[in-house]
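Readers outside the structure-tokenisation community will struggle with the description of the input data as it stands. Showing the layout once, in full, would remove most of the difficulty. For illustration, here is how one protein appears when written out as sequence plus structure tokens:
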Amino acid sequence: MTLAVLARIAALVDQGATVVGARPKGSPSLADDPRRVAALVDRLWSGQGPHHVWTDRAAALKARGVGRDWEMPGVADSALGVLHRRLGAGHLWFVANHGATPIQGEMAFRVTGLVPELWFADTGEIRPASYRVQDGRTFVPLALEGSGSAFVVFRRAASAQAASVPELSWEPALTIDGSWEVTFPGIGTVPLATGSWAKAEVAALRHFSGTAVYRRTLDVPAALVAKGHLMLDLGDVREVARVRINGEEAGIAWKLPFRVDVTGRLRPGPNRIEVEVANLWVNHLIDAAKGGPDDAYRPDAPLRESGLIGPVRILAAR
């Protein structure tokens, strides 16, 4: 760092500015006096007195009485991606789980006086959230599936320091096992259980790339329909699935968790379920490869997992 820059930083610090940065090793300029550079570095990075440069950003903010914008105790900051935007009369935080493992905890936001809501971009659902206010922050319970995300929005005035909202949780109600009728374009319809096409005994299925349709009739007990809120959980899907219940579109599952809301679509007795599953083009390219220099993949490249891998279940809200 040049002497001129150091001098400017010293002027800012002496005037009360909070500056955070790593201690420089010297100046890159041959015109600078090394002794003056060293003396200024020692003074600024001494860590003593009110006028010095901080090396720890969190400590610097704490010294200025500025708390963290957000944190989730017990969860590493690197596990989350968080963006904060100030609204006209409120705030929103976008919170994303960077990993494939679910994250659950209480997240603290540097805001008070407003009620939190959870907004979900993939479904359009807006859900009230429990909260409590402590030490100038609002704590909100938050559960994110692997690779899941949510907007935490504060836009309405709060009338209390805490509120409890019943959490929506799911329990397995019916396992859909056994064989499906699966139609592969260009191959035909074959009986097939859930699992990866890449592990099929028939070579044509192992190397299939495209969209296949799973069909079956499911007998649903009246007691299950009476439970109300139901979800079709496809387990693992590679890569995307479209679901139809009794000929009606139920939704598209394109990310973890691969679930579709089937509330009001299932009826007591037999129900016709169709699941269209599309995979990547990789397995076809591997099958077509001849080992030449222009091939995108080698003939012995490992096949990509594909299809409706499962397990497939009906989940009920509790």
Remarks:
- Residues 3-14 form the longest helix (12 residues).
- The radius of gyration is 29 Å.
- Helices lie at 3-14, 34-44, 57-63, 203-206, 222-225, 282-288.
